[in-house]
Amino acid sequence: MIPPDHPRYRSLLARERLAACAREGIVTPEGLAAHGRGEAFDYLIGERTTESALLAERTAAAMLLSSPSAVISVNGNTAALAAGSIAELQRASGARVEVSLFHRTGERVEKITRLLEAAGVGVLRGRAEPLLPLSHPRALCLREGIFSADTVLVPLEDGDRCGALVSMGKRVIAIDLNPLSRTARAATLTIVDELTRALPNITGACRGMGPGEGERLMSSPDNISFLRAAMDEIRGNLEHALD
Amino acid sequence: MIPPDHPRYRSLLARERLAACAREGIVTPEGLAAHGRGEAFDYLIGERTTESALLAERTAAAMLLSSPSAVISVNGNTAALAAGSIAELQRASGARVEVSLFHRTGERVEKITRLLEAAGVGVLRGRAEPLLPLSHPRALCLREGIFSADTVLVPLEDGDRCGALVSMGKRVIAIDLNPLSRTARAATLTIVDELTRALPNITGACRGMGPGEGERLMSSPDNISFLRAAMDEIRGNLEHALD
Question: Of A16, A198, A232, B28, which is most buried by a Cβ count within 10 Å?
Fold first, then answer.
């Protein structure tokens, strides 16, 4: 057991949770490696929500609230780490939730759907069709879900898929700790923050959004400014790291 | 299949290999996440051997050649990614090889020993005893192996174990892509390079070591200078990354 006063308690707990979900087939080996990459960038960013990330989170909330058909795309790692936070965000934003997997099998979709439903998430069900401009089976999604959404929140998404959604004219909100990743660069808005910190912040911003605030937020900095701010944080943290 | 002309071919191949070894129980879920952290740092360092890393690799070769009882400590990730390179380094340096696992079970030790032997490595066998100043079962090692070694090469080692070996008075050579890790800071010499690039470089340096060169190398920069050089590389790479 990890002692709760361990300086990296949250990080170690997340790692344990993912390893357990990998044994159940909810998380893939590739998902574990991807989580490790995220951990490294979170370490560099200081394992905290930066000021610019918080602004991106409030902007994401404004985008979700202003969207007539927003969808949250959930993969194995997201379900394993944040099923409860997805349920909260769904209630606060009114967005629909679709399970969308890079390593897609019917069995994994079903397992993850059940995990989310047990946490109180309403999950879209139906027959997935190859509707995205990607090679099969990565093209699969629901016609009444991601395909017809105008805004898609993709926590922890692969770069090709993020680019495909943008090319379809959708507004794509990514949560990605690597400000240099293809996903971070391709998205309409990138939140450079750790998933379990970012989701409650978006939910809180949805709940507290004042009148006219959404419009102001959505006219705020463009994506590249958010990425530059994250890079500046990392460079600043590295400056004296070995002193 | 990954196309060989993919810009990140080597990295993707390594990830596939580890995922396959995870399914066989050679690599642990925690090992996959650790690999992901390494990938992130390798990306930041430019996925190439820096000049200072090459100097550290030549220094490591000098330390191994000058040591009357050097041991290479091999874990699951190392065996999965570099069994052949370990065999070559063993032949070039004369070092002994011991399997040493963070998540140790008799079955994993046996599987990894067989994987190494199939690649031509001579692996120490025997009854492991709790000889390291760590809690059981992480204290386990062979009396005629790591316990009595004067120099230990630990590719991809955990920080506590690296510190324990140093506290026993051993010269510890670490291969670690994170210049800020506890392992990197605790080791006598840290090679900040990716495993499958580092090992052949050490082997090459063992084979080409000129007379008197080893002494010169071993009087070269101390560990903190190697770590600072790696940090400078990373910061330089980040400087214009978003231009």
Answer: A198
Asked whether residue A243 carries a pLDDT value surpassing 80, the answer given is: no
Angle at B53 between CA B85 and CA B218, to 5 degrees: 95
Give the distance from residue A21's alpha carbon to the nearest chain B alpha carbon, in angstroms: 10
Best mutation site among B24, B176, B182, B242 for testing chain A: the one with the most A CBs within 10 Å?
A: B242
Q: How far is A33 from chain B (nearest CA, A)?
A: 4
Measure CB to CB from residue B235 to each of A23, A29, A238 and give the nearest one.
A238
Q: What is the ipTM score, two decimals?
A: 0.86
Closest CA–CA distance from residue A118 to any residue of chain B (Å): 25
Whether B2 has its CB under 8 Å from any CB of chain A: the answer is: no
Place of tokens 């690296």: B162
Q: What is the DSSP letter of B147?
A: G
Write the pLDDT tens digit of every residue in A162-201. 999 999 999 999 999 999 999 999 999 999 999 999 999 9
d(CA A27, CA A76): 5
* 3-state SS assignment for residue A123: strand
Q: What are the tens digits of pLDDT across the range B216-233?
A: 999 867 999 999 999 999
For residue A181, how many C-alpha atoms fall within 13 Å in the half-sphere facing its CB? 26
